[in-house]
Design a protein that fits this description.
Elements (H helix, E strand, L loop, with lengths): L5 H45 L8 H19 L8 H10 L1 H16 L20 H18 L8 H21 L9 H25 L10 H31 L1 H30 L12 E2 L1 H18 L6 E4 L3 H7 L6 E5 L11 E5 L3 H8 L3 E10 L10 H11 L12 H17 L1 H13 L3 H7 L11 E9 H9 L20 E2 L5 E3 L14 E4 L5 E5 L4 E5 L5 E5 L1 E2 L11 E2 L2 E6 L5 E5 L4 E5 L5 E5 L1 E2 L7 E2 L4 E4 L5 E5 L4 E5 L5 E5 L12 E6 L5 E5 L4 E9 L2 E9 L14 E3 L4 E6 L4 E6 L4 E6 L12 E6 L5 E5 L4 E5 L8
Parallel strand pairs: 2-3, 2-4, 7-32, 13-14, 19-20
Antiparallel strand pairs: 1-5, 4-6, 5-6, 8-35, 9-10, 10-11, 11-12, 15-16, 16-17, 17-18, 21-22, 22-23, 23-24, 25-26, 26-27, 27-28, 29-30, 30-31, 31-32, 33-34, 34-35
């Protein structure tokens, strides 16, 4: 049953055409004129509705083949996991009162083989004109119930396929029954009295039974409510006795059977009323409440409540639906449909990033709360709603799998396989679940309330659980996060125009920022040795000299600790435009020096790493442009580091990971991938390595530093992270670097915040300086690279001012 590819389409077409031919042949044998009319009526409606009024021609094949194919596929999936008795004991008894009773009556008449006058063969009638309608309806009803009960997918909306033949079959049976009532006899005075007495007897008997089985039965005490119940029961029984006596006196005029048939008509009338009531309540009153057993995996009213708030915010802040709204994969159903008119919606799946801070409204399902809460908790107000819910499914307790789980829980484990549970034991345990209904009056009343009114109050009391709608279970929940600045402006001061810019957050570093000026400044803008053009990074060599990635000049400069130029090498070449031999660069951003004095350069836009001797002699290179997982593929690597063992670490920025190689450039492994969770990276830039095997990564767009170690050689895992209250922008320029020393100090640059921030290796903030834009010795214009020499002096690259600056802060480390 496939229609989307050519070969299966041909096979399916042969099957469908073959079935149509067989159907036509049977119709021709039966009565071809009537078959043509019936086929025309059927396909007339089918074509109109399944093409959606001729707007979707694919609806013909999807309606005829695709829907059946989908259902067959779902049979194996067993979506819903409902028990075998789902339709027989749950859906039909709760909703299909009249069809169920009518089907029982029809089955009785059909099995007896009785026929009324209209079904007798008329003389000279063509036998081929007759069709065994009752038998066909009986077959349709029984096989539908059996087939759908055994099918893998059992859902409330599939009940219609069982109810439809029941309605037709039950209608036939009820019609047979009503024709047997001699209505003309009951039109006379005595007949009318008999009908009235039967009505009194019927409803009085129902009331008496209700009192006996109810929560406050008669003759059970002397409290006021108990006495009232006893008094009411006695009164009702007097009506029962009086009506019964009256009917007994009239039995001679009618006989018991006609009177009993009137009682049957009253039962059918009551069933009709209950069916109509259940239909109206399910379709118009409780249509989206999980107290109805037809409401399954259904969007809860909380979705509409959340959307109403979002729409209000959007209109009041953008005068339309231009509000930026983000949502995850857990709420994509049904929110992707509800947000269809919001052009600035953002789906972040299960991998949130700090981009979310730019969104005033965020919707998150309960599976992702733990992921986003650390990011959003202090900046957003949150409101919790039920997103989707299911009806109460305590009837699952009778499933064989549930009974077996109960048995396994009760039986101590011996390490051996338990004997399979026999049918006798299963039925015995099922009876243990059913028995309280017959022995516990409070449970009986609770089940009655659910059956008649979908009221779970008494059942909640009996079960000791909370079935109030706000805390309904089973359900999936979601949170609506609204940024605090927007909420305050719009809802506390409703007439004020709200700003959609990110909230202003108090600077947590302010108390430890110091006024510090550089004691050495090197460089100016230019091409000559000692001059720079947008330099990005620097590295301190073991001998104290300094190597600078002179980025826009496409070269490396080697300076002494006093600023004297020692070597300059490199020229421009773009590997994508032709040959780019070793020693040529296309904007080198990152640089480091190994313990043996080799210089490693991240040749960023040639997407490769090169290494040289201390004097600039080319030794080797690795890497190529690529967005895949290939070992040698990079996309804009921004930094490079070398540990004491000589392993090379590359921040593969565009691919959001860090790669490792040995001294010869052989691939060892990688860690990180796109995301916000620990171990995931979003725009990794600066790297720092200490003497204890730890790798520090500037996880820029996640605004944090992550620390990795390799408990298993070359298999790095996250062990620590701390947030950086900076790095807010995602521009090409905002690329922070890290520097470290042997004392465990980790310093980073805040490029667009014009400052340096230093931490202990545990993430504890030590001190910082800067914060002002300018050209003075205590000001910066786009900070970039950073390193710490053996004397504790901090060297930074002030890229915007084309200079290198040295500072001498005093670090007070915790003992």
């Amino acid at each position: 049953l496939e229609y989307r590819t050519l070969l299966p389409l041909g096979r399916t077409t042969l099957i469908v055409v073959g079935l149509l031919v067989i159907s036509a042949a049977i119709g021709a044998i039966w009565n071809w004129r009537k078959w043509v009319v019936a086929a025309a009526v059927f396909f007339g409606f089918f074509v109109v509705f399944y093409t959606t009024l001729f707007t979707n021609e694919n609806g013909l094949v999807s309606g005829m083949v695709g829907s059946l194919g989908y259902w067959i596929e779902q049979h194996g999936v067993q979506r819903g996991g409902q028990p075998l008795y789902y339709y027989l004991l749950v859906q039909i008894p709760i909703y299909e009162y009249l069809p169920a009773i009518g089907s029982v009556i029809a089955l009785y008449y059909w099995l007896r083989g009785t026929q009324d006058e209209t079904s007798q063969i008329v003389p000279d009638e063509d036998p081929t004109d007759r069709f065994p309608v009752p038998g066909f309806l009986a077959y349709w009803t029984v096989t539908s119930l059996v087939a759908y009960s055994f099918a893998g997918e059992k859902m409330p909306w599939l009940t219609v396929h069982i109810a439809l033949p029941m309605i037709l079959f039950g209608g036939w049976g009820i019609g047979r029954f009503l024709k047997k009532i001699e209505w003309e006899r009951f039109a006379k005075l005595k007949g009318q009295v008999a009908v009235i007495l039967m009505i009194v007897l019927f409803f009085s008997s129902l009331r008496a039974i209700g009192l006996l089985l109810g929560a406050n039965p008669p003759f059970m005490g002397k409290q006021l409510e108990q006495l009232q119940s006893t008094s009411l029961f006695i009164t009702v029984m007097l009506f029962v006795a009086g009506a019964a006596f009256g009917l007994y006196q009239l039995r001679g005029s009618f006989g018991w059977r006609p009177i009993a048939r009137i009682g049957g008509a009253l039962v059918l009338t009551l069933a009709l009323g209950l069916t109509f009531r259940a239909s109206v309540r399910a379709a118009l009153v409780h249509y989206d409440l999980a107290t109805e057993y037809l409401v399954y995996a259904h969007a809860a009213p909380g979705v509409k409540t959340a959307m109403a708030q979002i729409e209000d915010l959007s209109i009041r802040t953008t005068d339309g639906k231009e509000l930026k709204v983000a949502y995850d994969d857990d709420v994509s159903w049904p929110l992707s449909w509800y947000l269809r008119d919001y052009d600035q919606q953002y789906f972040f799946g299960a991998n949130p990033t700090r981009d979310l801070l730019d969104y005033p409204v965020i919707l998150v399902g309960d599976n992702n709360w733990g992921v986003v809460e650390p990011l959003l908790a202090d900046r957003f107000n949150r409101y919790e709603y039920i997103r989707m819910w299911w009806p109460n499914q305590d009837y699952w307790n009778l499933k064989r799998s549930s009974i077996e789980a109960e048995r396994n829980f009760e039986t101590p484990s011996t390490g051996e396989l338990a004997e399979p549970m026999g049918m006798g034991e299963y039925l015995f345990r099922v009876w243990g679940h059913i028995q309280p209904f017959f022995t516990d009056r409070s449970l009986r009343v609770a089940i009655w309330d659910i059956w008649l009114d979908r009221d779970f109050t008494r059942y909640a009391e009996w079960a000791g659980r909370d079935f109030s709608l706000p805390r309904w279970s089973p359900s999936d929940r979601m949170r609506l996060y609204i940024r605090k600045d927007i909420a305050a402006l719009v809802w506390d001061y409703g007439v004020t125009s709200a700003s959609l810019s990110p909230p202003i957050i108090e600077d947590p570093y302010a108390e430890k920022l110091i006024d510090l000026s550089a004691d050495l400044i090197i460089g100016t803008e230019g091409l000559s040795p000692g001059a720079f053009s947008r330099p990005r990074d620097l590295a301190i060599a073991p001998d104290g000299s300094v190597y600078i990635a002179d980025t826009a000049n496409h070269r490396v400069q080697h300076l002494s600790a006093d600023g004297e130029v020692l070597q300059v090498w490199g020229s421009y070449a773009n590997v994508s435009s032709g040959d780019a031999p070793g020693g040529t660069f296309n904007e080198p951003w990152g640089i480091t020096v190994s313990e043996q004095g080799w210089v490693y350069v991240a040749d960023t836009w040639n997407h490769r790493i090169q290494w040289f001797t201390a004097e600039g002699e080319f030794l080797g290179m690795l890497g190529r442009e690529g967005l895949g997982d290939e070992p040698d593929a990079f996309w804009g690597p921004r930094d490079v580091g070398v540990d004491l063992e000589g392993r090379i670490f590359v921040s593969d920025t565009g691919n959001k990971r860090v790669k490792m190689y040995d001294q010869q450039g052989n691939f060892l492994g990688q860690f990180g991938s796109a995301g916000y969770l620990p171990g995931f990276l979003d725009e990794p830039v600066g790297l720092a390595l200490d003497g204890f095997g730890r790798v520090y990564v500037a996880d820029t767009w996640n605004q944090r530093v992550q620390v990795f170690t390799d408990p298993v050689p070359d298999q790095y895992e996250p062990v620590l992270e701390w947030d950086i209250d900076a790095w807010y922008g995602q521009s090409l320029e905002n690329k922070p670097y890290l520097g470290s020393n042997q004392d465990g100090v980790i310093c980073t640059t805040d490029p667009e915040g014009f400052r340096v921030l230093c931490f202990e290796s545990t993430g504890e903030f030590l001190l910082g300086w800067g914060g002002e834009f300018g050209v003075e010795a205590n000001q910066f214009n786009l900070l970039s690279g950073i390193d710490i020499d053996s004397r504790g002096q901090v060297w930074v690259v002030d890229s915007g001012n084309n200079r290198i600056m040295r500072f001498q802060p005093e670090f007070s480390l915790a003992p």
